[in-house]
Design goal:
Layout lengths: L3 H11 L7 H5 L8 E5 L2 E4 L4 E4 L2 H4 L8 H13 L12 H13 L4 E7 L2 H18 L7 E5 L8 H6 L16 E4 L14 H19 L4 E6 L15 H11 L3 E5 L13 H5 L5 E4 L11 E6 H14 L12 H16 L2 H20 L5 E7 L2 E6 L15 H11 L2 E2 L1 E2 L5 E4 L7 H22 L1
Parallel strand pairs: 3-13, 5-6, 5-7, 7-8, 8-9
Antiparallel strand pairs: 1-2, 2-3, 4-10, 9-10, 11-12, 12-15, 14-15
This protein binds pyridoxal-5'-phosphate.
The site of pyridoxal-5'-phosphate has 15 residues, from α6.
Length: 459
């Protein structure tokens, strides 16, 4: 076995990590961690240090670490058929069974699943399918896609453009045309503190309506949104938001993409966030929870309405010129089938709802009224604590104080992984959905102690 020192040296010398300060990492100036194993909601590194994983990797290990059922399904598939492609009507038992299982769980009006490998490539597929559908139905000018500031939809060229976070645009020459952004449904940061949730939702819908009118409805094809904002700050929608947004979309014949990469398969205590918030999307993006990240797999679920547009296109123009070598990869599909079965057997969605309610209550008990906490928010097993300099006047900390990152570092010191979200001083938590109430209590206790450490240091 390689020694830790040698691995560390090779890591600094050879590995360009995603979302990492590349130069500082290569020079050995920033911490690095080599993860070796995991069980349930805990991971273990090569130095033998264990952490409670309060973010389920990147909110993806929904059934928890160390599930032999999924590992065995992958191994069995690898022995039988490691790979065959899905082009020109080919498939594997696992991929077909998984498509059927996904549709069984998705809202009733959904009709087909296209499989990719990551949330980013699934959203890339979504943009292409929508453009294709617009061309197929004689509307070649209707191509713009509207996303929200603070939305997160991936980090490819088109998907990084859909993402509404500065970090993912700066120095990459993004966003590209024809992607537009509208108001984030971020009630805590509403422009006027006197606004009610309903009034703020109306304000967001009016902003969207005005943008569509200014651009011309005949140029706007679709709107994309996460049922609850994720990487942009873990922000549940204000009351009435999706109802009002969907009314605007219907008026202008603009399609809806629900990006459920995080919320799909249980995170909010329901199978899909679309059901949770009464959304009726034309496309649903899935990834993470589809395999609980035991293998890379994503999907675009098409509504019957969208499928008919695409089918018209292929009837008129021939086969769809879109596909990846690894679309519907049998190993990943086998992981997906085993994962969805486990979600049912272990009643993971119900647990996310019930333990989620405990988790949210504990967070409120621990943080409401805390001297540097402005808001505690969340849904199911997805939550955030937002730190501010003065909760009374909603005065934010200067970004240079890095308060969110300091709380996350203090939590890690105490054995909890929680994520400093990229824009604002926000501690995000989204643990595996197999979390127990006792583990929820342990996580919240550590998060509170970490916030106290930082509040004390701030004086
Ligand atoms: N969409 C949402 C809502 C996400 O949270 C993410 C990743 O966190 C993505 C898309 C992109 O997924 P991936 O990182 O697998 O490309």
């Amino acid at each position: 076995m390689l020694t830790n020192d040698l691995l560390s040296q090779w890591d600094r010398e050879s590995f360009l990590h995603p979302s990492t300060a590349a130069g500082a990492h290569a020079r050995g100036e920033t911490p690095a961690r080599i993860i070796e194993g995991g069980q349930g909601v805990r991971i273990r590194d090569r130095d033998g240090r264990e952490s409670l994983d309060g973010f389920a990797g990147l909110y993806c290990v929904n059934v928890g670490y160390g599930r032999p059922e999924i590992a065995e399904a992958i191994a069995e598939q690898a022995r039988k058929l490691a790979y065959y492609h899905a082009y020109a009507g080919h498939g594997s038992e696992a991929a077909i069974e998984l498509a059927h299982m996904v549709l069984d769980r998705a809202p009733d009006h959904m009709s087909k699943v296209y499989f990719g490998l990551s949330g980013s490539d699934a959203n890339e597929t979504n943009v292409k399918l929508i453009w294709y559908a617009m061309n197929a139905t004689g509307r070649p000018a209707k191509k713009k896609i509207i996303s929200r500031w603070r939305g997160y939809h991936g980090s490819g060229l088109m998907t990084g453009s859909l993402t509404g976070l500065e970090l993912f645009h700066n120095a990459f020459d993004l966003p590209l045309n024809p992607i537009l952004h509208t108001e984030a449904p971020y009630f805590y940061r509403r422009p006027d503190p006197a606004m009610s949730e309903e009034a703020f939702s109306t304000y967001c819908a009016e902003k969207l309506d005005a943008l569509i009118r200014a651009e011309g409805a005949d140029t706007v094809a679709a709107f994309i949104g996460e049922p609850i904002l994720g990487t942009g700050g873990i922000v549940p929608p204000p009351a009435g938001y999706w109802e009002k947004i969907q009314a605007v979309l219907a008026e202008h014949d603009v399609l809806l993409i629900a990006d459920e990469v995080v919320t799909g398969f249980g995170r909010l205590g329901s199978m899909f966030g679309s059901d949770h918030y009464g959304m009726k999307p034309d496309l649903i993006t899935i990834a993470k929870g589809l395999t609980s990240a035991y293998a890379p797999l994503s999907g675009s679920i098409l509504s019957q309405r969208l499928f008919e547009m695409v089918a018209k296109g292929t009837d008129d123009m021939g086969p769809l010129g879109h596909g990846w070598t690894y679309s519907a990869h049998p190993l990943c599909a086998a992981a997906g089938v085993a994962n969805l079965k486990l979600i049912d057997e272990l009643k993971i969605v119900e647990n996310a709802r019930d333990t989620g309610a405990v988790f949210q209550r504990l967070l409120h008990e621990a943080f409401d009224g805390h001297p540097i906490v402005g808001e505690v928010r969340g849904e199911g097993l997805m939550a955030a604590v937002e730190f501010v300099k003065d909760p009374g006047t909603r005065t934010f900390f200067d970004a240079s104080e890095k308060v969110g990152a300091r709380v996350a570092a203090a939590a890690l010191e105490r054995g909890l992984i929680a994520r400093a979200m990229p824009q604002g001083d926000i501690l995000g938590m989204a643990p595996p959905l197999c979390l127990t109430p006792a583990e929820a209590e342990e996580m919240v206790g550590i998060a509170r102690a970490a916030a106290d450490d930082v509040a004390k240091a701030l004086g």
